[in-house]
Specification:
alpha+beta, 32% strand, GTP Cyclohydrolase I, domain 2, 122 residues, 4-stranded antiparallel β-sheet, 3 helices
Length: 122
């Protein structure tokens, strides 16, 4: 199975449980890996058979910037479920980082892996 990856996608969101986190958008960084069947895209060299990563980035940016989750776990799950709705996506791995969350560490985040239970693998 092949995959498309997006690294270090930067988005801003209201995220967190503390009052100061609810007032101002914070930077988040996403690494995303989406498995899908590439044979039609390879054979045709046509975007309509490929995973349009440009559109995926735009959709994620819009979704995340309009969200206001408290937990990074919930936001990561919501992003994964949105990606799994894209035709042909078999599974998705997401690393969601919240780089300004801790004073004593450079980064904190979550990694998740979700499978599309409705996908058909040839």
């Amino acid at each position: 199975m092949d995959s498309i990856f997006i690294e270090k996608l930067r988005v801003d969101a209201i995220i967190g449980v503390y009052p100061n986190e609810r007032d101002t958008k914070q930077p988040l960084v996403l690494d995303i890996n989406m498995s899908y069947e590439t044979s039609q895209a390879v054979a045709s060299d046509n975007l309509k058979y490929a995973l349009d990563y440009h559109q995926v980035c735009k959709d994620i940016n819009t979704f995340v910037s309009e969200s206001s989750y408290q937990l990074i776990e919930t936001l990561a799950e919501a992003i994964a479920q949105n990606i799994l709705k894209i035709k042909g996506v078999i599974d998705v791995k997401i690393k969601l980082s919240k780089p300004n969350a801790l004073d004593l560490a450079d980064n904190v985040g979550i990694c998740i892996h979700r499978k599309n239970i409705n996908s058909e693998i040839g």
